[in-house]
Design a protein that fits this description.
The complex is a heterotrimer of chains A (369), B (367) and C (181).
Chain A lengths: L2 H12 L2 H38 L15 H10 L11 H18 L17 H9 L1 H12 L3 H32 L4 H6 L5 H4 L1 H14 L25 H25 L10 H22 L5 H29 L5 H22 L1 E3 L2 E3 L1
Antiparallel strand pairs in A: 1-2
Helix pairs in contact in A: 1-2, 2-11, 2-12, 4-5, 4-6, 4-11, 6-7, 7-10, 7-13, 10-11, 10-13, 11-12, 13-14
Chain B lengths: L7 E5 L11 E7 L2 E8 L7 H5 L7 H6 L6 H16 L5 H30 L4 H21 L8 E2 L2 E2 L7 H23 L3 H7 L7 H6 L5 H5 L6 H4 L20 H24 L19 E9 L2 E9 L7 E5 L1 H6 L2 H5 L4 H11 L3 H5 L1
Antiparallel strand pairs in B: 1-2, 2-3, 4-5, 6-7, 7-8
Helix pairs in contact in B: 3-4, 4-5, 4-11, 4-14, 5-6, 6-11
Chain C lengths: L7 H12 L26 E3 L9 H5 L5 E7 L5 E9 L8 H5 L5 E3 L14 E2 L18 H5 L33
Antiparallel strand pairs in C: 1-4, 2-3, 3-5
Classes of the chains: A mainly alpha (369), B alpha+beta (367), C alpha+beta (181).
């Protein structure tokens, strides 16, 4: 019984049925979207300042105290730019692509729990919904690359499809481990069943899911879609104005959405002592994003065939083995001593990572077994 | 159903974030595999060789600054050596030591920039660049203390250097030389064992030993392919035979070796600097040379080991105040002719980083 | 060179980046903070002393570009009186060969580097503009007596020391240092 459903029941006593159906929906959507867009703006500021500190320089600090109005100034600047469409491009697809990339990001937030009963809709197949929605963005990116009539964009679009499809599978298998352990597909149930965060109970699953996430949101070391030094901005090379703002906000929105998903599935969501649950969620999301920015500022990027080799030959077999191990543990070990599972899992994770990487040879630009 | 594919031509034009200047390449691609590369140069041509024919020998020195603007002291050094060889001028001891100090610090600065931007092409967004530029900034401060400018120094003169170093130069240089090995170790920890870097550069775009010799490559590109050829040891100029240093040689000739050779050369430059500072004598800094120098009739080719390769100046004199012919042998133009051999069969991403590992500077390619 | 392939190389690299979070940034917040430039800086201007100049035009002959234009006439005491002494700083490359060539110390490089103008004609400096004034100070390039009177340069190598270094604050702006002409 989420908060919104209670609100609807209470309204149903006062107003006609159709009004009591629509008004809570609108209120819920407005609150969630306001929260999301505010947090996206904060993320943009957070990333620029943090990357600056990693690189022994200050980030932007001129507009407002410590530069907190910089993202707003960026947004205003982008909105004021002229909207240029290339002459020989496919106009309808060119116009439609940013929408298809941006909207699924917002739709993911419908199932993220912000508190004990504060969730927009408590779908009992929440995890499947998230996985399904997040693969629509790949189609949008491909449309953007194709419709631009530009060879750089085309190279980037084809790489995008390859990358995003390759990393769906390990991610889904890692999520299945979580689902097995908690026993249900609904997000609120998963959070409720985490007495010990699943990060400790399934370290290998966490690593696989984290790397899959970083690949899905096109960040270093997997950011070859918008490789600034090779193909000069990739699929959004011909976009300007509001459409580019959609891609830009969509990228950070994607990072925020996946950080929320990681915090919910592996870091026990909003649970935590002593303060309102929303604060704990924000702290965990910021911590996950810190690690993502840290990786971005340190690592060079992989080449596209090395990236796919890493997904299909490295992450996917490990994800399948992880699933078997988790299934075995749930069957035999779950009643006694969950801390024993922690130790066992860490040992398994360490052994697998060492053994698997022994099989790889680096050389000739190829990553192969 | 047979699938028909055809290759397309991609123009990596003069405006590109990774072509280290205004350089254009017309690349024929089959999917992502490079089939053909055609470089197009000339976007930065300023006519330095023709300008040199109407300026006196001293007035050409500021022009040579603008050739390889990343490492200007070595350009000055090579030119001044060529003129001194032609006119038979002796250089005082202190001037020789000061020139060596400037040349070796310049080598460190140039390699810092080369390695930093090689990693920028690889995708590590400016983080190694900013770490390495902190050291380069310290060196540029020292140059500003000596000659007043940070990029185009105009410091060497025919017969020595233009002015002596101030008294706060040597303590600052000693502090830099003491701290530098620690910083190079930090770069090694950040980069040399990084799995992503190894996967991208190990065994990629190999330049075989014979091809390197046949295309007249020089500098770190040649040494990475396994040829132990360094002009400071093979044909010693100035007073390099008094110093004790090694020449790092790679084994395979791939991108990783070119990066590794540059890191090791920085360590060897620090060794030379320690010895030079210890042996620095007192004395004059410039020989007495007439203001309008008229060398005897003849021709000379003077070359040095610049950070990018073998930089040579060819001068023909007809006993007047300006040279009759002034020609520059740029190291990176000759190294660039090996690009096509290295890159055919690899992918677009490898093309960009191979081009970065040759370490071009468009100022000396186009002159 | 031993290569570990378990991801330890990546972890070591990330440790280096993490260490840098705790070092103060080396950014100088221009224009509120300016560094003290070198005593021998070849700034973007020249300073001319009319009482020492004899109109010999050695500086004009030694310029690689021909930027200096001198017009003189023979005066009453059998000397040259300088009517026009113009330097085109738009074409000048500030190499300093003219300053080194002057036998009477009548020409010096300037210390300021903020000399942008709105029109190209304003970059051609005439006889009056080139003289010593509040906004036109000489630097010590090839002029040892002027060099001895200027403050020492601020060096990044001494950034952690207060004297002669750039002690910068963690975030925000520190107080104004240096000479901003």
């Amino acid at each position: 019984m989420t908060l919104l459903e209670q609100f609807r029941l209470w309204l149903g006593g006062i107003w006609p049925e159709w009004a009591a159906y629509i008004v809570p929906a609108i209120v819920g959507i407005v609150v969630v979207l306001g929260f999301v867009l505010t947090l996206v703006i904060v993320f943009i500021w957070y990333e620029r300042r943090l990357m600056g500190r990693f690189q022994i320089r200050l980030g932007p600090n001129r507009l407002g105290p410590e530069g907190i109005f910089q993202p707003i100034a960026t947004a205003v600047k982008i909105l004021l730019k002229e909207d240029i469409v290339p002459a020989k491009s496919d106009k309808v697809i060119h116009w439609l692509a940013p929408v298809i990339v941006f909207v699924p990001v917002l739709m993911i937030f419908a199932v993220v729990p912000f508190g004990e009963r504060a969730i927009l809709t408590d779908l009992n197949v929440g995890v499947v919904y998230v996985v399904a929605i997040s693969s629509i963005s790949a189609v949008g990116i491909y449309m953007a690359g194709w419709a631009s009539n530009n060879k750089y964009a085309l190279i980037s679009a084809l790489r995008a499809v390859a990358q995003m499809v390759s990393y769906e599978l390990p991610m889904v298998l890692a999520i299945l481990g979580v689902v097995l352990m908690s026993g249900s597909l609904s997000m609120t149930q998963i959070v409720a069943s985490q007495k010990i965060p699943f990060l400790l109970l399934q370290p290998l699953g966490f690593v696989i899911f984290f790397l899959g996430t970083v690949a899905e949101i096109n960040r270093s070391p997997f950011d070859l879609l918008e490789a600034d030094s090779e193909i000069v901005a990739g699929y959004h090379i011909e976009y300007s104005g509001m459409k580019f703002a959609m891609f830009y906000l969509g990228e950070y929105g994607h990072a925020l959405a996946y950080s929320c998903i990681i915090a919910t599935l592996f870091l026990s969501g909003w649970q935590g002592p002593l303060s309102p649950p929303i604060i704990w969620l924000v702290i965990k999301v910021m911590a996950v994003f810190f690690v993502i920015v840290w990786m971005r500022s340190t690592l060079p990027r992989l080449r596209v065939d090395q990236l796919m080799a890493f997904a299909w030959k490295g992450l996917l077999p490990m994800a399948i083995i992880n699933l078997f191990i988790v299934a075995a543990e749930v069957l035999w070990l779950s009643e006694i001593m969950p801390w024993l599972m922690v130790a066992v899992n860490f040992v398994f994770a360490g052994v697998l990572v060492l053994l698997w990487s022994k099989l790889f040879t680096l050389g000739g630009g190829r990553v192969e077994v | 159903m047979a699938i028909k594919t055809e290759s397309f031509i991609l123009n990596m034009g003069p405006q590109h974030p990774s072509t280290h200047g205004v350089f254009r390449m017309r690349v024929t691609l089959d999917g992502e595999v490079v089939v053909d590369v055609e470089p197009v140069i000339g976007y930065l041509h300023r006519g330095i060789e023709k300008l040199g024919e109407t300026r006196t020998y001293t007035q050409i020195i500021p022009l040579t600054d603008r050739l390889d603007y990343v490492a200007s002291m070595t350009n000055n050094f090579a030119y001044v050596l060529a003129v001194e060889k032609l006119a038979g001028i002796e250089v005082p001891e202190r001037a020789e030591y000061l020139r060596i100090i400037m040349a070796e610090t310049m080598r460190i600065a140039s390699h810092l920039m080369a390695v930093g931007f090689f990693l920028n092409d690889l995708g590590a967004l400016m983080t190694p660049v900013l770490y390495m530029w902190r050291e380069r900034e310290k060196l540029l401060d020292l140059y500003e203390m000596v000659c007043g400018q940070r990029l185009t120094y105009n410091y060497m003169r025919i017969g020595g250097v233009s002015q002596d170093v101030p008294e706060e130069f040597l303590p600052a240089l000693k502090k830099f030389v003491a701290e530098m090995p620690g910083f190079i170790d930090e770069y090694d920890q950040l980069l040399s064992q990084n799995e992503v870097l190894l996967a991208r550069t190990k065994g990629v775009c190999i330049l075989p030993r014979d091809t390197a010799i046949n295309t007249a490559a020089s500098g770190p590109v040649l040494r990475a392919s396994g040829v132990k050829w360094d002009l400071r040891k093979a044909d010693p100029y100035s007073i390099y035979d008094r110093f004790d240093f090694d020449v790092p040689v790679g084994s395979v000739g791939d991108n990783y070796d070119r990066y590794w050779v540059r890191m090791q050369e920085m360590r060897q430059s620090v060794r030379i600097l320690e010895q030079a500072i210890a042996q620095l004598p007192e004395g004059e800094v410039c020989a007495k040379v007439p203001q309008l120098l008229r060398p005897p009739v003849g021709e000379v080719y003077g070359h040095i080991e610049a950070p990018k390769g073998e930089l040579g100046f060819y001068l023909v004199s007809d006993n007047s105040i300006a040279p009759y012919r002034f020609h520059i042998r740029p190291p990176t133009l000759i190294n660039l002719t090996a690009l096509k051999d290295m890159v055919i069969g690899w992918k677009v991403a490898d093309l960009i980083i191979t081009f970065g590992s040759i370490d071009v500077c468009l100022g000396e390619i186009d002159r | 060179m031993k290569f570990e392939r378990y991801g330890i190389g990546v972890a070591k690299g990330m440790a280096v980046t993490f260490k840098h979070l705790f070092r103060p940034p080396i950014t100088v917040q221009y224009p509120e903070e300016k560094l003290i430039v070198s005593r021998r800086i070849r700034g973007n201007e020249l300073v001319w002393y009319p009482d020492r100049c004899t109109g010999c035009a050695t500086c004009a002959k030694s310029c690689p570009q021909g930027n200096i234009e001198i017009v003189t006439h023979v005066g009453s005491e059998n000397n040259y009186v300088v009517d026009k002494f113009e330097v085109d700083t738009g074409r000048c490359m500030f190499c300093g060969l003219c300053v080194e060539a002057c036998p009477f110390d009548a020409l010096a490089m300037g210390i300021s580097y903020e000399r942008a103008q709105h029109r190209r004609k304003q970059l051609v400096l005439s006889k009056e503009e080139l003289q010593l004034s509040d906004v036109r100070q000489p630097s010590g390039y090839a002029r040892p007596r002027i060099e001895a009177s200027l403050p020492k340069q601020s060096l990044l190598i001494y950034w952690d020391k207060e004297d002669g270094g750039q002690k910068l604050s963690w975030l925000g702006l520190s107080k104004k240092r240096g000479r901003g002409v």
